[in-house]
Design goal:
This protein folds into two domains: 1-48, Ribbon (Pemi-like Protein 1, Chain: D), CATH 2.10.260; 52-98, no CATH class. It is 51% helix and 12% strand. It is built from four helices and two strands. It has a two-stranded antiparallel sheet. The protein starts with 20 loop residues before the first helix and ends with a helix.
């Protein structure tokens, strides 16, 4: 995405600002979407949360692929570990509960 010229917006009574429609469209923001606001030396940076989540998921996926592990294998491993922890902590065998 390219940077556009700065747009002036007014801060309202409760600290609210309205992002210009052009910016909302470029970022794919819709009513109710979450954004992260980070204070920087130059002001504030607004980042759509779905962008942050997708970047994090992409990094996790890349690490898994580099390790030769599929998402399905990772989920199954998590289930096994969760079952072991439940058995250790509560004495409940998850495999027997499913039967």
């Amino acid at each position: 995405m390219t940077r556009s010229a700065a747009k002036l917006v007014r801060v309202q009574d409760k600290g609210q600002v309205t992002l210009p429609a052009e910016v909302r469209r470029a970022l794919g923001l819709k009513k109710g979407d979450l954004v992260a606001v980070t204070q920087t030396e130059d002001g504030a940076l607004i980042t759509p949360q779905k962008v942050l989540a997708l970047k994090a998921l992409d990094r996790v996926g890349a690490i898994l692929r580099a390790q030769g592990v599929s998402l399905e294998e990772m989920i199954e491993s998590g289930r096994e570990i969760r079952g072991q922890l439940i058995k250790e902590e509560y004495g409940i065998d998850a495999d027997e509960q499913d039967s």
